[in-house]
Design goal:
The complex is a heterodimer of chains A (312) and B (272). Chain A is built from twelve helices and two strands. Chain A has 312 residues and is mostly helical. The model of chain A has no long low-confidence stretch (mean pLDDT 89). Classes of the chains: A mainly alpha (312), B mainly alpha (272). At the A-B interface, α1, α3, α4, α5 and α7 of A face α1, α4, α5, α6 and α12 of B.
Chain lengths: 312, 272
Amino acid sequence: MNQLAIPIKQLEANDLERITKKQKRIKMFKGFTFLAPSVLLFSLFLFYPLGRTIYLSLFLTNSSGMPTVFVGLENYQNIFSSPIFLKSLQSTFLFVLYTVPGAILVSLFLAIVANEKLKGIGFFRTMYASTMGISTAAASVFWLFLFHPTIGWLNQLLNAFGSAPIGWLTDPEWALISVAISTIWMNIGFTFLVLLGGLQSIDHYLYESADIDGAGYLYQLRRITLPMLSPTLFFVITVTFINAFQTFGQIDMLTRGGPQNETYLMVYSIYQEAFMNYQFGTASAQAIILFVLILVLTVIQFKLGERKVHYQ
Amino acid sequence: MTVPLHHKVVFYTLLTLSALLVFAPTFIAFMMSFMSNQEIMTGQIIPRSLTFDNYVQVFQRFPLVQYLLNSLIVSLLIMIGQLAISSLAAYAFVFINFKGRDLIFFIFIATMMVPFEASIIPNFHTIRDLNWIDSYPGLSVPFFAMAFGTFLLRQHFKQIPKELKEASEISGIGDFKFYLTVVLPVAKSSLVTLGVYGFLTSWNMYLWPLLATTDDRFRTVQIGLRQLQTQEQLNEWGVIMAGAVIVVIPTLVLLFIGQKKLQQGLTEGALK
């Protein structure tokens, strides 16, 4: 009996190893099966096109987008010596500078006042969140009217106060600011909702003990609310930032890049170059610049965020 | 603890003023869609009599029903595609422990760094070569895979007790069955959140439908609105606003219903 038992035990040990190996393989197979659709789609519609864009940016192309002549970095040299592209870069940065702080400050204010426990607060929250449900195209139509030189409300208001009318979308001094104002309005809904959620997840206990210590409203706002909100604020800033760089719809609807290229933002420029002028090489070079800009600025934000953001 | 009266007065004033400012553009558009052209030109605020003329006009002159139908189909396709594909991926990240998982997770994070605009030119060529211009797949399939959705669902799947998975393994329930019969029903509320978010963003998409459609049979409602705005004489504001109002009503209703859930979901996505 004893002599027989030993080989059986050895057999079991071998089997066990084989079985665990087999199980590992099965798990790997299963894991990849569940992830396959995502990986496949990301490869086809994100990573391949990104690589292809880099490749195209080194070529001249024909009108159907096939590369014809290899030109190395010439496309990049060309765009960086093109006054229109440099202007476009400048406008894009200015636009980001207007819209990001604008949207964040307005939504932060709205989220703070809407975080009070008052009767009917739900109604106000719905009002503030409403712009999230309004598409870029529809919002542009709304603002196109408000900006209208004669019957638009903004100039009617100015008129009522006795001021001269402004060419909101036609005056080169104002066009970018006007588009920025409408963009801030479009962004409010989303940033407000996220910030309100952030405020509501702050522990009430903190406020209660501050109340007992006799700390005033503004002191609590500065010392409790803002530090505790910083992770959410950081997320919202990053998202608005990237969105501002990707602005397209409102430009296409409101100004078409004009007047005098003042609102010729980067994505609009890429669109024009590629799909109106069929210069896919230059357009690809611009797209890569956009990608690098967003990448670098996001990394910088994360590095700064790591230090400044207070995590619970 | 009661809120002091002067505090209340200050907050109600701020709340009301802000609500008036934020909602004004939408309110004005709604009002205008019921006004005659004459009333608009003379600067009325509230229409003297409600006229549905603008709505009748916009449906008569534009294939708005077709646009709405296209938007609905495309948004539903994207929503369902995103839910299915993100939840499968999130399941693998939470319940299947395998070699290479961390690497794939890193790839998912990396996708968030690539703006769609940076890859839009080759994507356009891909869709064209697949003969997917002017088709529902061309409008929807590129948006099925979604890192944000995967991360959001991963957070929720993580809250499902591991013991449940172990118990199901012992009773011989396979991964796919466990995913379908246990994980998805338990995570229903986060799926709804993601669904609402996906539907809203797809309905409002602008640049891609502009490139991927050339034909009224497949144009989405946003591009329809662009057509409306460029083709109408600019003095027909009532008709244009009626079009815009029809475009925003579905998303506004969805937002009002799903606002609470959306807010919770987005905040969790932001914090973790």
